[in-house]
Design a protein that fits this description.
The protein is of the alpha+beta class. It folds into two domains: about 45 residues, no CATH class; about 80 residues, no CATH class. It is about 60% helix and about 15% strand. The chain has eight helices and two strands, in the order H-E-E-H-H-H-H-H-H-H. The radius of gyration is 19 Å and the shape is globular. The mean pLDDT is about 90. GO terms for molecular function: endonuclease activity. Keywords: Endonuclease, Hydrolase, Nuclease. This is Type I restriction endonuclease subunit M. InterPro entries: SAM-dependent_MTases_sf.
Length: about 130
């Protein structure tokens, strides 16, 4: 849906160009009786435009292409490991996804079942499966 795409694009812009300093949530009556909670983001614009974001995107693409040649140069493998820790996923299991051959155990993880459910709900995927 258009709303969903707008939210995704907004998140991408926020993460690409800003550091999140704080998030505050206020009640639904903060700016009148709208029935909607108000959330305020306190942001700091990143000093470098999307250069770090481009670098991270390139590195992620490398990882999913199983190109680990630059891991020692950039010393950034810890980001994947922290991500796995955050998701409570075993790093060695996650590596199987990066290699294009994910273990069944990984695919049964709640986050991946949610991803698959969302992915399968996309009309482009439904149409592809029909053809």
């Amino acid at each position: 849906s258009t709303n969903k795409n707008t939210y995704i694009s907004t998140r991408e812009i926020l993460l690409k160009y800003f550091d999140i300093v704080a998030i505050a949530e206020f009640g639904s009556g903060t700016f009148g009786k709208t029935g909607t909670n108000t959330v305020t983001l306190f942001l700091r614009r990143k000093e470098e435009d999307p250069a770090p974001a481009k670098q991270f995107k390139n590195r992620i693409n490398d990882w999913f292409k199983n190109n680990r040649k630059k891991d020692e140069v950039f010393e950034d493998e810890h980001y994947i490991k922290q991500y796995c820790t955050h998701l409570e996923i075993d790093f060695t299991d996650y590596e199987t996804l990066l290699k294009g051959e994910p273990k069944e155990k990984l695919l049964e993880n709640e986050i991946f079942t949610q991803y698959k459910k969302e992915f399968d709900s996309w009309s482009i995927i439904k149409n592809y499966k029909k053809s």
